[in-house]
What we know:
By secondary structure, this protein is α+β, with helices and mostly antiparallel strands. The chain is built from 4 helices and 7 strands. It is globular, with a radius of gyration of 18 Å.
Amino acid sequence: MTTTATNQQIPPHEGLPPIGLLAELPTDTLKALSAIGSVNNAPIGKKLATQGVDHEVVSIVLSGRLRVSCHAHGDQLELAILEPGDIVGEMSLLDPKPSSADVEVIHGPARIWSVRNRDLTAFLESDPVRGYAVLKVLAKGLCQRLRASSEHRLRQADLLRSHFLDIDY
């Protein structure tokens, strides 16, 4: 299936919408960020990232839903569902390695704001105050994911433990 995406600039007077973690950024920072990236309309089935492939873009979901999944031991595991305000690809900005998961549009068309890592890095370095605020938001998102992953693993451990407690000896 061939998919196309429409590339659009956000009008400078609008800026990025204050959704999700972006709501923590000042309006002027959202406007400045919108100027360095662009909005793409992505149809259902469009992949934003492919596991094992270099990923050099940070994206923010403006509308639609995306599935994050990974392949392990022959199975495809769903890791998360991303909704408006969620961030994709921030790990590649901080730790440039191949993508750890597939990210695919599952409800849309989705509107996705994207910026190349090199352009975002230049933005962060050019204005330390705004740069710190943006990095803090990215770090907060990563912390939320790490906490959710830890809670999930604890629930799995409790479930496994409860099965062993039910064994008759």
